[in-house]
Every structure is written in C-alpha cells, then in structure tokens.
Design a protein that fits this description.
This protein is α+β, with helices and mostly antiparallel strands. It is built from 8 helices and 9 strands. Strand 5 (144-146) and strand 6 (154-155) form a beta hairpin.
Length: 207
C-alpha cells in the first residue's frame, strides 16, 4: 500500500502485507523472518471481524514476543524507529518499535485512527524514557496502555509507573495533560524520526 494511503486512510482491498513483501523479507532477513511475516499477515486477516478488545490483546501479545534489545544493539544507532517489517525481520525491538508495530497493525485491522496514539512516557521505576501505544475506548476517557514492559493491558490510571509526556498519531501531536488526551500542539510531521519511518515504510510497500 502506498504510504500516503496507509497514513491518510485504509483503502478497501489493500493489504499491509503482500506475498511480494514476505518474499523480500525472506531474501533480506532469512526464513525465520518470512515465517514471522506470514504469521503477522494471518493475524490481521483472521481477526478483522473480531471486537476491538480482542484485537488489542492479540496484537499486543503478538509483538511482545519479539526479543527486546536497544537500538544500539540492533541498529548501531542511539535512536532508530524501526518499521514493523524491520522489527519482524530482525525478531528484535525496542519500546518504540513495539508501539509503532502495534499501531499500524491495529489500523490495518480496522481500529479507528482517532482511538489510538503512540505516547512517549517516563518509566518511573527505570528512570528512563519509554514509549507505549494508548487506546481510547471513549473520546475524552482514560486510555488503555499497550506496553512491552507490562504485557497486561491496563488503563492509564492503573499505570502509576508511567508519567505521560506527549503523544502522536498520523493526525497530530499532543502534549500530555495528566492521563487524559492532552492538548493538541500541531502535526506529527514535526517529529523527524516519524517522517523517516514513513519514508522507509513507503519503500517497503513498493516491493
């Protein structure tokens, strides 16, 4: 799927994963990567008709199986936002990669854009920056948190170990306000790593 279509709206009949992309991943990363890609494709296809609650659990558990490693260990860089294909190709991810992969997968499975945000937080017990995916069952409500540190999906008010900083999706960028939706301050295009990620996804989708 062309990136502009991927980010601006899902198109009927288009798929996030194709046979050609799986073959490309096999050549680039090896047979285990192709198996992970095939499982990813099956996950999205089999559960399109499920409830959003079911989709959250399935997608959260699927990507949390990837081995956690730092960007420096995986990519030789201090900060790198991997595409879902890159994360599955390597079989490894850091917190940004888990959150990004869950976001795009749930979008593909029909979860509305406006219900999800990728959120930067501070992991208080670790005293370090962290990233999670948040899902808002109701507009203006407290979101659920999809996280690799804690595999259980809990509402943000039960995650006292996380302090929100800012959040974003394809539609915008918000500064966090307590554990609610926060204040919109502009476009997510202001985040250079997000723009770089989208460009790499476009190249992958062209395979």
């Amino acid at each position: 799927m062309a990136l502009a279509l991927l980010l601006c709206g899902l198109v009927a009949g288009e798929a996030l994963v194709s046979t050609a992309l799986i073959q490309w991943a096999r050549q680039k990363y090896g047979e285990p990567a192709a198996r992970r890609m095939t499982e990813w494709q099956a996950l999205m296809e089999r559960h399109q008709g499920g409830s959003e609650a079911e989709k959250l659990i399935l997608v959260n558990d699927f990507f949390n199986q990837l081995t956690y490693r730092s960007d420096l260990n995986i990519w030789g860089k201090d900060d790198y936002w991997a595409t879902p294909v890159e994360a599955l190709g390597k079989g490894q991810a850091d917190c940004e990669d888990y959150s990004i992969a869950k976001y795009f997968t749930l979008r593909e499975m029909g979860v509305p854009e406006e219900k999800m945000r990728i959120m930067y937080v501070k992991a208080l017990e670790l005293d370090q920056a962290h990233m999670v995916l948040t899902y808002y069952p109701e507009a203006g409500g407290v979101p659920l948190v999809l996280d690799n540190l804690n595999g259980q999906i809990l509402s943000a008010d039960k995650r006292g170990d996380l302090a929100p900083v800012y959040s974003f999706n394809a539609e915008g960028l918000w500064l966090a306000k307590s554990r609610g939706r926060g204040e919109k301050v502009g476009s997510s295009s202001r985040i250079s790593l997000w723009q770089d990620l989208k460009a790499r996804m476009a190249r992958e989708m062209a395979q």
